[in-house]
Amino acid sequence: MITDARVLQPGFIPREVQHRDAEVSYLSHTLDPITEQTSADPVFLHGPSGVGKTCLAQFTVERLREAVVSLNHQYVNCWEDYTRFKTLYRLLEGLDKSFDIHRQSTPKDVLMDRLRTYDGPPYVIILDEIDQLQDTRLLYDLYRIPQITMILISNNEKEVFASLDERVRSRLNTCTRIKFDKYRVDELTSILHDRVQWGLDPDAITDDQLRYIADASGGDARTAIGILRNAAVAASSKSRDGILSEDIYNAVPEAKAEIRQKTIDKLNNDQKTLFEILLSRGELPAGELYQAYTKQAEDPKTRRMVRNYLSKLEYYNLIIADGENRGRSYRPRG
DNA sequence: TCTCCACCGGAATGCTTGGATG
DNA sequence: CATCCAAGCATTCCGGTGGAGA
For A328 and C18, how far is CA from C1' in angstroms? Predict the structure, then answer.
């Protein structure tokens, strides 16, 4: 029944992007100078998760590559590579210039120097989840490298700009910003329909079932495709040639749990402890949470460090922080 | 309305780690 | 092998904030 599993994978880049015509043409237009072998101004893509920001950026760069004779490009997820070193390392990797860098610190800033001396064709870099970068001056440094064109992606426009260093902000304030809204149910349905066409037997699933999935995913394409994948896998493991509604009902919580589990796996022990306390006890004021944590953790960290952990958990959408200052309390999400 | 204080989060400083270097 | 050094994590210090209670 599954004819091509790749199109149901999270990182798959489709050959056509649907319902984002305006965004695609806006982005391509901004990147136009690259076809003349010069770099373009930075672009900032923002909007909630699962609305096609990453997909569209990669898709557009892919298309640009077909039109331009020579062009280097690289995608970096700043959630995973959030330090200056790791980000720079990835960027050099994209130019095949990282071969002799093996450790976390060759002399002071060799990586940046090497990037600065790059004088090849235009280098288009996609920096995803830039709000996770701990050193935002990196953006300023990259901005000043003439060959580099930056596509910046983030969920939260305001927070990013608030956290930026003054010099970066004044530069990026004027750059092109493209806002992405959540997909509507009919849009998601047709996106799913497209994936089915490439990845499943045509009769495996009905339009009504696709619409149900689209509705259940809350406008998030990643979740929707995850649900479709799980339902398809469940059906084919039972050697059926079509997806039953039952497969879909089961796949909804499964897919959501999968996405959540992926982020939980990235937590360290202290962060997990905090999250588990909130899961078992529900909402807690900050003080009580810290007390519970010190009892449970074998080597409790300081209050300040715990605040860092909690803000990380909040960013990961695992917990919700209510209230300001003195009255703040934390509770698990969902 | 004023004062207190729990809590937030920025910044400076300290500690640990592990590849590089002689 | 000993030493060096910056990354990365953690602690310390501290000003800011807003709700509770006098």
Answer: 11
Query: Helix A221-237 to helix A207-216 angle, to the nearest 10 degrees?
Result: 130
Structure token pair of residue A252 = 């909804």
Give the three-state DSSP class for A128: strand
* Helix (H) / strand (E) containing A248: helix A245-264
- Is residue A76 classed as helix, strand or coil in its secondary structure? strand
Spacing of A180 CA from C9 C1' in Å: 35
The angle formed by the CA atoms of residues A100, A122 and A158, to the nearest 5 degrees, is: 95
Cβ atoms A137, A168 nearer than 8 A:
yes
* Cα A130 from Cα A139, distance rounded (Å): 9
Residue written as token pair 């288009």? A124
Q: Strand C: which of residues 75-114 in chain A lie with Cβ below 7 A?
A: 83-86, 104-105, 107-109
> Burial code of A68-84, b = ≥16 C-beta within 10 A, e = fewer?
beebbbbbbbbbebbeb
d(CA A148, CA A140): 12
Say what the pTM is: 0.87
Pairing verdict, β A148-154 and A43-46: parallel
Q: What are the tens digits of pLDDT across the range A240-297? A: 989 999 999 999 999 999 999 988 998 999 999 999 999 999 999 999 999 999 999 9
